[in-house]
Queue: 3 jobs
Job 1
Amino acid sequence: MKDQLKEIQERFLKDVQSVKDLKDLDTIRVQFLGKKGELTAALKGMGKLTAEERPKIGKIANDVRESIESNLTAQKEKFERIKIEAQLSMETLDVSLPGSKKDLGKLHPLTKTINELEDIFLGMGFSIAEGPDIEWAKYNFDFLNVPKEHSARDLQDTFYVADEIVLRTQTSPVQVRVMEQKKPPLRIISPGRVYRCDEIDATHSPVFHQMEGLVIDKGITMSDLKGTLDLFAKKLFGEQTKTKFRPHQFYFTEPSAEMDVTCFKCGGEGCRVCSNTGWIEILGCGMVHPNVLRDCGIDPEVYSGFAFGMGLDRIALTKYGINDLRLLFENDLRFLGQF
Amino acid sequence: MLISLNWLKEYVNIECEVDDLGEALTMSGTKVETLVELSPKIENILTGKIERIDRHPNADKLVVCQVNFGDFEKVIVTAAKNVFEGAIVPVALDGAVLANGQTINDSDFRGVLSQGMFCSIEELGMNQDLFSKEMMDGIYILPANTSLGQSVKSLLWLDDVIIDVELTANRPDCQSVLGIARETSATLDQPLGSFETYNAPESLDTIAEYLSIQVESDLCKRYIGKMMRVKKIEPSPLWMQVKLLNSGVRPINNIVDVTNYVMLELGQPLHAFDYKSLGSEEIIVKTTDDKKIITLDDQERAIDQSMLMITNGKIPVAIAGVMGGQNSEINETTELIVLESACFDKSSVRLTSKKLGLRTEASARYEKGVDPDLAITAALRATYLLEKIGAVEVIEGIIDIYPNPQTQAEIELDPQWVNRFVGINLSADTMISYLKRLFFQVREKNQLLLVTPPYYRTDILIKEDLAEEIARIYGYNNIPGTIMGGETQVGEKTEVQKTENQIKSLLVGQGYFETMTSSFTSENKISGLNEGLPDDMVKLINPLGEENSLMRRSLIGHQLEVIALNSHRKNPQGRFFELANTYSKAEKSDCLPLQQKKLVLSSYGNTDFFDLKGTIELMLAELGIENVLFVAGGSDMLHPGRKAEIFVGETILGEIGEIHPLVVKNFNLPKRCYICEISFGSLMEAKKYNVRFKELPKFPGTSRDLAIVVEENIPASSVLAIIKDNAGDLLESVELFDVYTGEQVPQHHKSLAYALSFRHLEKTLSDDDINPVIEKILVELEGQLNGRLRD
Ligand SMILES: [Zn+2]
């Protein structure tokens, strides 16, 4: 019996040498280890053995089985590796060929700019308010403290659809609507489309976009205005950006200012973009005029606030270095595809 | 506005560099746009008198001049025609530099050494627009009383710097050298110089013998008349001309120049009438029924009753605040003049100027606002100057009509409030010193300041105005930056705003490019869309041309223009979208027009109806919108056989289709274009917000394919509806995977192949479960649509 087992093992070792592939290997596995295989057949004789011999032979039988199995496993791994290597040698790509074409559109550069600004202000606790493009003249002018006789109200400057209805010339009417409807504290921005009677050219368009902001609370100071807008400028144009506040005049605010930022092209050295001044005018701002607060039902002796407004088209233009406003509204794919 | 730095220096001591001055003024609120040195390169050009002119021995076109410089003489050869013996001219001597940088040296002119060159206005770098062509053509002849051997650079203020300042609407008081000088004085903390006015004792009222003045309109706030007897009308002195030139004003004669000088210096427009030409002993300021007037520039102007006129009691002699009339113009024979120093209503001047299309230095100043209290100072300043330069003899007495003198109210200011409001910490004394630098009067009373602004600061009305004055003198840049405290607020987008972003991202992911188009459209564009003009379009009263006269009601027209542009520019294909407002009239006239946000998608080139439809379906699915139906139909701009209205249940969302060939022609579009317009509001209403997790299935599903043959005209949606209605709860999904027409199905029939997936949540399905369901579907298809299983 013992010899028989040894013989099986030796014969296996001999036969396995001639195995050429996984199929042969499987045949040999069945031949030796299968249910009807030689080892199984040999072990059928176990019953005839004495109780003394049985464990010994059993151990030998197990060793033989394990030896054959491990040999088979090793052989299998070898042939699988050969097969994979054969496959790999057949399969080489020119990885420099282009990837298959996927269609991806783009957001308009103006939308990208608006999104960026919105994200900055959302992070500072502002909400986004919207209002109608076609607006009451009183919201566009009167409530904003614009004098009755001001030329901005003329037909030459503002589009009218009726005596008392205009295409808004700024998004400030949204602020008025918010102040009328909600109680302070308020922190809003209002991006949107605005209109003025300007013929279209490289820097003007009768249709353009603005974003205004408003903060109203107890104890809001001009210092808060500076800090908030300085932070905004740093977020938008980079940490190295400096700001400069110049006194200015707006009917909506008192005191009023214009904010310049260091030129993002030259960093303040002076270049064509900034007309060699090193600064770029970016927004108008100021402390909300007490007349405006009062007209909106907010007591200026209790609350104060600041407001700011900026031209989005111009920010998009300067940000991306676009030299002609008309490109924004032309929608040539070769333009839209760049952003 | 242009300000001469040299003139400004007569009022304020300015020691800093000019760039620093510009920056300081800008930072205190007077925005300096540019600083232009007039002729910085000029060197060694002196005044010389031509004593004698001789013919050149060797050249007919040249002459040889003996020129006297006071201490020395030089010989100058010239070809200039306008020189004469006795003329005093600018002479560039050996080594001189002209305005353009050219160096002048002694040089030989056909055997005669010229020791320099006479200079023209251009060579001196002066403002060429302000001289007549004759003056420009020759050598610049200086006045006869000019002293000799002087540097022309300093004489003609060629070393001046022209400061261009941008004034804000609230500061009409800065429209003058004096106004800017006041700001400079406050900014640099330097004293302000003074100026002289006519103050001879006026014991007599001689003027009354000549003139009376009446103001019959409240559009005239103040009217002052002062009369003078002309001694001689001649060019004004050089120092005056130079100041006018460097302020951008053309010198004319001594009388006119003084009126302009005072306007530039103090900001008060003045006008001088020829008394005799007035043809009357009265001036009446009023609106009139007259239809026309010929103005000083020889133009006939159509006037109307809204315009304020200066009349002689019968006819207009000037358009108030805009321009004088030709009928009362100063001329060489003028003996007596009436000097007008007045204040007119700013809106009235603005509207008159606008109607006439006539904008003058005077009207520009009146439009911004001229203070009535300035009128008297200006009248006396002009009188002083006219007398001083020897142009006139003053007629005693002055007529001053000033019905409602203005007063400045005292404003109460709490210094601690200023500190709290601005976010600074200044002492009351510092604030007082700032206000005094700006010529405000300040009294202290119980910790409060009582502040009276100077008469010309009509913009200062409330304490916030004073806070700005203090802040700007302190320096905005010295105010610290802080982040506001107060209640914490959450900044977040609304559901609508989030959905907009979601839709845009999805469409970008599907290869669509966002467009940005105008809100305007026109009747012409709409008629190109094969549609009648809707009667609820919002129309502009004052559009920029017919092409922009309506507010768009739909986004489709602009999308077609975008396609046309791109196709025309040889971009082979494109997919676009835009989410924007559309407008229509409100039903009630006392309401704002309606504004509806719409989403439009369009495509051309390498695309088809189903490509676009697939994107719409994907978007609707992403928004959780179910029960979407595409029903054949839609507007006339679409191909009649390739258009559908999109419904969610009973609500119409929008329409989709191929552009009608007629519209393709009208808009010059590529042959096949597709468009879909959806109401964003309806989309938001249909949107499902609550997404709930469904247990993943534990048991395998089973699937069946059904190819159904139906008549061609039966919509696939009907077949699908029957499948869904009869498949019961076991149906997990059903997808159309093939549409076939051809030989293997009867004529006018099509085969629709569906893959049906079934699944039970708690068991594995067997044929016994599925077969009855399939059977039921087939029976219903046959019964309702005469559909049958394909062989
Ligand atoms: Zn720059």
Job 2
Amino acid sequence: MNNEAMNQTSEKKMTAAERAAMIKNNKILLDVDGLKVTFFTHAGQVKAVDGISYQIHEHEVMGIVGESGSGKSVEAYSIMGLLQKPGRIVGGKVTFDGEDLLAYSDSEKREFRGNKASMIFQNPMTCLNPVYTIGDQLMEALRCHNKEISKAEARKKAIEMLELVGINNADKRIDQYPHEFSGGMRQRAMIAMALICSPKLLIADEPTTALDVTIQAQILELMKDLQRQTGMAIIFITHNLGVVAEICDFVTVMYAGHVMEQGTVDDIFYNPAHPYTRGLLRSMPNLDDEKGKRLIPIEGTPVDLLDPPKGCAFGPRCEHCMKVCLTKQPPMVTVGDDHKSACWLHIKEMKELSSGEVTK
Amino acid sequence: MDMLGYTLKRMAISVLTLLLVAAITFFLMNAIPGSPFMTEKSTPQQIALANAKYGLDKPLIVQFGNYLKNLAKGDMGVSLKMQEGTSVSKILFGQGKFVLSMKIGLLALLVAVIIGIPVGVLQAYYRGRWIDNILRVITTMGIAMPGFVVATLCLFEFGVTLGWLPVQSNSLETFGAYVMPVLTLALNPMCRIAKLTRTSMLDSISQDYIRTANAKGLKTRVVLFKHALRNSLIPVITYLGPLTAGIITGALVVEQIYHIPGLGNYFVSSILNRDYPVIMGTTLLLAALIVIMNLVVDIAYKIVDPRINITKKGD
Ligand SMILES: Nc1ncnc2c1ncn2[C@@H]1O[C@H](COP(=O)(O)OP(=O)(O)OP(=O)(O)O)[C@@H](O)[C@H]1O
Ligand SMILES: [Mg+2]
């Protein structure tokens, strides 16, 4: 389906389910298959990402949620080729638009970054270089991928981009330094910079976490608008489930470097299958909740990745933990149309179901 | 405060600094017993006569007042001994001594900056690897070794044993004559700059904006030299003030060893000869250079980092 059609249909205010259903028929843009990333530290090997798989279709907005330390950023850096030593990709495949990203040479990686896919980060206060003007940094992003474009054209485009992300007086603002911008404006400038080469994929690593609540909502709204306008796919990394509901079509729930559950937004919110996802939802405040209802935190502490449990990573904290959970990693089980969950409970249920059928 | 007010204030402070330097030099040099005219053959009458001729018989404070009065008119007095009767300004500027010293000093400064900074960047980029380790040993040695040791070693190795470069540089007629004095003078500041750059680059390249620059797809060279280096330059620039002073004092030694008839060399002789006006003139000239360099440093801060407001107090 093309972008136009998508736009027209979105005019009619699709429901989340309708959008998800359309998107899953789109071409696959990014295919992450069994990605493994390990940090080789003095203390030992930290398996920050331990075999995760997902697919992003064109125009799709996928949220990756999980507690701090679950490997969300590391996984995103690996795709962008920004992984720092001592981290190394030790397994899996990443295919973007039919090309094997992990086989790219250094210069091909540079060509990919910022051009075909770009990334924005958590803290806009520190992510812009303080000693260059906003315009300089925007134009540089454009000109390093488009050598022919003249300075004047690049400047025009940069002003356009700043206007697009809602910065007033863009033609004056462009010559200002980051310290003359507020936090929200800096994140807008970061978004403008990320989108200036019209990438097909935007990876947003907690882009609203460092901003105050009203600004958060504005930036989220802006990203949603821009996504609908440009049709780019977005990987939206966050630990805020509220943000996920706002903007995402699909959700991947991560824990300790593993994918716990994957599904559409509706699946995850209204029909969560994995105990970890349910735990996350219970620990999140909700406006619809009756007054005085307590938030229930997930007991225990996140996994020590230097010495991960043998079985299910969430096992030791799980209220439904069984014997098998502590010894063997659960397989990914399809529990609905686009809904998958990695939990032994599903296997148990299936067994009970089938044995029940046999006795009947 | 605006830029003009700030500049005026800085200039007033500079003049005050120079006055202080003049006073300290003047009274210290006169506190040493003896006079320029005291030689084995001279009689007390001759000395008294010469003292009277140049006004050295008056009380010190009056002498100093006179010196300042003349200085304000641009008159730095005449040499009492080394080139008796020749005006100090002519000695300093008219005989090529200052130009000669400036050439060596500026070249040394350039070499120190142009080699020191990239070496520091390289070290930071390859931190902990063999190239960084080797350079770290070399830079530490360069800082630890005094200029005269380096100069003597160079003279012996390249001048005498290998015979590649002239042993006496004299008036620096050939390119070869420059090499040893400039390198000797530049070695220490070069190594210091490399170390400073390495440390502050290590800090810069771990900053978030470097990740942003990489995420844009910029070349490593651009990320290092455009994005990281500019943010690392503040400590290096701060060092430029003391560095100028270091090069000036270093030049005294280097000019002696390589027999370069520059200002440094002449300065040392003027002290040994008690040629008061020459001592005063040279000291003030060198002090003025350092003061100017510090002004340049302040302006350079502002150019390198737009957040720095040099006209604001307490920043
Ligand atoms: N340079 C490194 N060296 C060693 N371990 C690292 C390094 N960087 C990340 N890790 C490990 O990788 C794991 C995943 O980190 P990551 O930053 O991806 O978490 P995250 O899910 O993005 O968390 P957050 O929500 O806090 O951003 C962490 O447990 C961390 O210990
Ligand atoms: Mg993170």
Job 3
Amino acid sequence: MSEQTFELKGNLFTLSVLHLFSVDITQLRKELDEKISQAPKFFIGAPIVINLAKLHDTNVDFATLKQTLIDLQLNPVGICNGTEQQNEAAKAVKLSVLNYSKDNAKPVQPKQNNTEVVEVEKEVYLPPQIVQTTVRSGQQIYAKNRDLIVLGAVSHGAEVIADGNIHIYGTLRGRAIAGAQGYDEAAIYCQRLEAELVSINGSYWISDSLQGELWGKAAQVKQKNDSLEITALVKG
Amino acid sequence: MAKIIVVTSGKGGVGKTTSSAAIGTGLALKGYKTAIIDFDIGLRNLDLIMGCERRVVYDFVNVINGEANLNQALIKDKRVEKLFILPASQTRDKDALTREGVERVLNELKDKFDFIICDSPAGIEAGAMMALYFADEAIVTTNPEVSSVRDSDRILGILQSKSKRAEDGLEPVKEHLLLTRYNPSRVAAGEMLSVEDVQEILAIDLLGVIPESTAVLNASNSGQPVVLDGESDAGQAYNDAINRLLGEIVDFRFLNVEKKGILKRIFGG
Ligand SMILES: Nc1ncnc2c1ncn2[C@@H]1O[C@H](COP(=O)(O)OP(=O)(O)O)[C@@H](O)[C@H]1O
Ligand SMILES: [Mg+2]
């Protein structure tokens, strides 16, 4: 029997997405540098996807952009939401063109004729994914298109991801990423907040920023003004 | 049909081999026919701690390769009736174990024994996976420190997802926590995690707490599993753990700093 040397499989990974609002790369370098210095461990070598949604059809100097990110010890892997032209330019410097469901919604086309079409949208209820045990170090759970409920704890070094909300009835010690596909009203609820990282719709806080009043307490994490807000879970 | 119990941890040097020897010997002392298998291929520690290193002729790998049969390789303990050791090979590497081979040996042992104790190597690579794959129960050996607790947590995740029981969708591997090298005065000083801290993180049943003890070192130096030293704190703590493994409810001992008695205070102790 000959041993196979490889196997190709699809998988899901969480990547940081850099939402680019301007093509001023000098300014970008300055601001990013500041951001990174707040949590260098989190960023060094981090794979980065550049979201061009906000740039419309501006020309982007991808070679310089890529080099800038590399200089900052990031690892740019691709772009998303580019125009055809931007995509071609990105490919030329070996950046992959990735699909990103959010922001992709096409504007609705006006009806072509006058016949009335009544579309009945079927309401689909996706029940939450429920994990009965503790999610252990090294394990990753992804609840696609739904909420995630964990009855145990989420250990250090474990990661739970949901496109919807995340409810953790034990202690959250690892990472929790809610609203992973862009649902900005997603929340993380946990009985005890001692997380390595919480993230909602791309905004994240690492443990250092979490160690305030609600550290070790029952808490909910939501997105607010592109940042996060942590409040007590039980209202007194 | 034997119960297969893996003694595992992720981290090295936490007391897996010491515990495998003590628990295996203790079960045999209580009349259960027990085999202890050394899965730490290439290191061979178990036979030293069991004091049978000079009687090793064939080993686990020889049996798997068909170079010897089980009866030739199993070493019968000279002190305890019903106790057998299957030593590891010192000359091979960890890849010498195949899943089919291990399964065949375990199946053969299962018919003749009550308990099979698998002493796992450290790490989460092939050797450790092999030791836990066929387990019915796991004794997760943990020291009261952060890195050991993390590694144990990792192993618990692997038991839940990569063991045969998990793959076949059977009842999950029964998990026990064995805290070893517990030093109450260092816990009191805040230098080590307490039993409660560790239990809170790992959230599995506590099988036993073995104190840090000079008796363990003396025992392994003389090739006597520490349960045979019934006077020692560690020996007694292992004995309590074995009784719990067999379903008894036993109070926990050796958790607190011992207050020195008046005589000890005068004469030193
Ligand atoms: N309760 C204990 N008190 C003191 N020393 C111990 C105790 N348990 C284990 N040790 C020592 O720790 C070392 C590692 O133990 P060992 O059982 O070989 O660990 P592992 O098999 O997990 O690598 C040995 O030197 C052993 O004597
Ligand atoms: Mg060992």
